[in-house]
Automatic annotation (TrEMBL):
Biological process annotations from GO: succinyl-CoA metabolic process; tricarboxylic acid cycle
The name this protein goes by in its record: Succinate--CoA ligase subunit beta
UniProt GO MF annotations: ATP binding; metal ion binding; succinate-CoA ligase (ADP-forming) activity
Keyword rRNA-binding appears in the UniProt entry: no
Gene Ontology CC terms: cytosol; succinate-CoA ligase complex
Record key words, sorted: ATP-binding, Ligase, Magnesium, Metal-binding, Nucleotide-binding
Domain ATP-grasp: 9-211
PROSITE patterns registered for this protein in UniProt: ATP_GRASP
Calcium recorded as keyword: no
Amino acid sequence: MDLLEYQAKDLFQKVGIPILPSQRIDHPKDLKQLRIPYPIVLKSQVYAGGRGKAGGVRFAENTIDAVAAAQAIFYLPILGQYPEVLLAEAKYEPDQELYLAVVLDPSLRRPLLLGSREGGMALEATSRQIQQVLVDGEFSPFYARRLAINMGLSGGLIESVSAIVEKMYRLFLTYDLDLVEINPLAVNPAGEVMALDGKVAVNDAALERHPDLPVMQSVGGRRDHSAHRPSHSTLAMGPTCSGLAASAFDLPNLNPMLFPGSLGILCNGAGLTMATLDLVDRAGGQPSACLNLGGESSYRLPPDTLCDRLEKGLDWILQTQRLRSVLLNLLGGAETCNAVAGAIARYLKQQRQPVSVPLVVRLGGAHAAAAREQLAALDLSMLFVLDSLDEALTKAIALSEGAGVGR
Ligand code: GDP
Ligand code: MN
């Protein structure tokens, strides 16, 4: 369960991570009783990332500017979600923007410290340069220092940044978090650090242990997104929004490809994705969108599994334009086909309305036969589970060209 930025910052304050003076804004007229001096920054409080690029972060020099900016932000959906509140915050002039996070490594089940000298909105482009330090024993400040040094920091910044990492780690343990992220951690010319943005995800299984966390009363976590999600047509997907779309699902490393056709493609792993695109092309199919869910070995933010990415990928692809069918060409490995099939089944059951676009699934690898049976047993008219890739290609292409869903 995610916290909103202002809720994350309340936690930061508890452990002494520096934040700017701020005030929650429930209505533009609240700005007339603002307790922080201008200039300020107004920020949309939604769960999606990429608010800066989407226009959800605006600066204001006076009350008139601020009211107008607040009105604009309240009416600006970010990936379909309207903010219920805004955060007004003192403006800060950063010299440098760093990225810091503590996550649970999904395969090793150990905390992992992450950091990059190029944070802020530049992070997406540089996400490959994120330094990682695995906390493989009892935590000590040494781990935090090593991260700061690996990030290429020098002088007093090593101390100030590692002190922040230690505090993030304390939050991570105390509240059973899956993720605590600061992006950006701003550094001003005097070398002082300030958390300008914060992201906190609480482990769902541990929620009951932390009744003091604001999640229970929050206006809806990620799970409630469907309540705010617009119908397909309002999400204008074009090549220019592909980065935004991926970052909204907190998957900065996933790069969707968009094409002019009507067949959606989801695969796991770069090789399989490219091969599938080639096969679709050779068979005369016209892709509309293609997403590589990633291999299992490469590390992604926030910690997740192939199954998580599959559910997010389905969510994303089903909102793309012109879509008439989706081909899922997936290979089970460490995450077996059973688990993958379970994720597909769970996704389909969670939808408020039955999925209206036919899904053609081809599963290969560990336990594929049992997984196919599991999906076939769902007996859904929009779900086609085929044994061979050839059959799946033929079916998915025919459906994308308008063939009926009859079997
Ligand atoms: P995100 O795009 O959803 O991650 O939203 P952020 O809160 O990270 O804001 C986006 C960008 O706005 C940051 O990377 C900063 O460059 C900038 N920003 C946010 N808050 C401030 C602030 O108080 N002062 C200044 N100068 N820039 C800010
Ligand atoms: Mn940010």
